[in-house]
Amino acid sequence: MSTPSPVRMAAVLSTEHRGRLMSQAREVNFPEGARIFDEGTRAETFWIVRSGTVTLQTPVPGRRRPAPVENLGPGELVGWSWLFPPYVWQLSAEAMTPVRAYEFDGPGVRMLMDADPAFGSAIGHWVGRVLALRLHQTRTRLLDLYAPRATA
Question: What is the pLDDT of residues 14-31, one digit of tens each?
Answer without folding.
Answer: 899 999 999 999 999 999
